[in-house]
Write a structure and sequence with these properties.
heterodimer; A: alpha/beta; Rossmann fold; 7-stranded parallel sheet; 8 strands; B: alpha+beta; hypothetical protein PF0899 fold; 2 helices; 6 strands; elongated; binds guanosine-5'-diphosphate; binds magnesium ion; binds zinc ion
């Protein structure tokens, strides 16, 4: 079986065919093994057994330590888009103004509208633009924290990206996860998206000012929430009118 | 979709591991996906078709091993398969206190490479 391919050799050395070949290819440029069935016996297997969220959990633990050392309590607000996270935070910040120093991190896909709505005198606010990522992760929050001046701050509010699925898997290092459900979304949301409710410390049923008009069945909603999140404290309130806010503010003060 | 981010971190990990093992090509990536992991297997598969080309794992087979959800009722001291509408309800005693024993997995399990 004659081998027609010219033999390669070290630079300048004459090959047996008499043709001098100079190989100047960078070894890094050598093309990878071409696709096709591998030769038997050449495949190697490595067992990894790595949790893909380990890295996020590690960074979340760092955030938690960072916040704890500064005496800051952090809350992570999650919900579908439009459930009222920003409105809730606006009213909460106004109610706590002059009493508790707060700071805010807002995650958003593209715009900084929410961060502008939340701007207040003396309040550190940072916008985290995720550029399409549908949730905040712990490293984004770490960068947000580095951008804020946190002196004297006691409460950190993190408004997550509006999404009921993905944020459930990403610990940010918060002390409390608060899931919002608004009356406009229907009573069965908790049953359709259990993990985000299961992992919540508290569930806020927002927009109760329009519940009656919408024919929202409170009892059914509460039963569904308790079913998937028996551990969660439940607040029924209106971020627009302020109804039900006293209990919510008491919950926040009790965290300090 | 956060499957893209998951796929990216899995691939990065796989390529780093393959590189340090001196491999030139990754042939198979095995990922374990629990029913409660929040990750959709089809979306994950799609994400891989987007990010594999041009890497040492181009053309690799993605093997997704599904893991069923298993819950545990402390009152009955029994495991059961929860259904998504009655997540924490024990089918024996009807209590809502069950805990998840299995189904949150999202692991890079194994690599095959040349
Ligand atoms: N009726 C009513 N509307 C509300 C309430 N809270 C928020 N909204 C409205 O719902 C819309 C979305 O609110 P926003 O705070 O931006 O939601 P986010 O996307 O979760 O931050 C806005 O038009 C708010 O004015 C509420 O308690 N009652
Ligand atoms: Mg908002
Ligand atoms: Zn039971």
């Amino acid at each position: 079986m004659p081998n027609k391919k010219p033999e390669r050799s070290r630079a300048g050395a004459p090959a047996r065919s008499g043709v001098i070949l100079v190989d100047v290819r960078d070894p890094a440029d050598t093309p990878p093994t071409p696709p096709g069935d591998p030769l038997p016996g050449t495949v190697r297997t490595i067992d990894l057994q790595v949790r893909l969220l380990d890295e996020n959990d590690r960074r979340a633990a760092e955030n938690r330590t960072f916040l704890q050392q500064r005496g800051i309590r952090a809350l992570n607000f999650v919900s579908s888009p439009g459930a009222g996270k920003t409105t809730l935070l606006e009213r909460t910040l106004d109610a706590l103004a002059g009493e508790v120093r707060c700071a805010v991190l807002v995650g958003d896909l593209e715009t900084d509208n929410d961060a502008r709505r939340l701007r207040r005198e003396g309040l550190p606010v940072a916008q985290i633009t995720t550029g399409g990522t549908c949730h905040l992760d712990a490293s984004m929050v770490a960068r947000g924290l580095a951008a804020l001046s946190l002196g004297e701050v006691r409460l950190l509010f993190v408004e997550n990206v509006g999404n009921l699925v993905c944020p459930a898997s990403f610990d940010l290092g918060e002390n409390r996860r608060i899931t919002l459900l608004s009356c406009t979304e229907g009573e069965d949301k908790p049953l359709k998206y259990p993990p985000i409710f299961t992992s919540a410390h508290a569930v806020i049923v927002n927009k109760i000012d329009v519940a009656a008009v919408l024919g929202f069945d409170r009892a059914v909603a509460l039963t569904n929430i308790r079913r998937v999140a028996p551990q969660a404290e439940i607040f029924e309130l209106s971020a627009r009118t302020g109804e039900g806010f006293d209990r919510w503010l008491a919950y926040l003060r009790a965290l300090l | 979709m956060h499957e893209l981010g998951i796929a990216e971190s899995a691939l990065e990990l796989a390529l780093t591991q393959a590189h340090s093992a001196g491999a030139s090509r990754v042939l198979r990536i095995v990922i374990r996906v629990g029913a409660l992991s929040g990750v959709d297997a089809e979306a994950l598969r799609f994400a891989f078709t987007v990010i594999l080309p041009g890497t040492a794992a181009e053309g690799a087979t993605l093997q997704i091993d599904p893991v069923a959800a298993i819950a545990y009722c402390p009152a009955c001291q029994k495991d059961f398969f929860p259904d998504t509408d009655h997540f924490f309800e024990c089918p024996t005693c009807g209590q809502l206190c069950a805990t998840v024993k299995q189904g949150r997995e999202l692991d890079l399990v194994r690599l095959e490479m040349l």
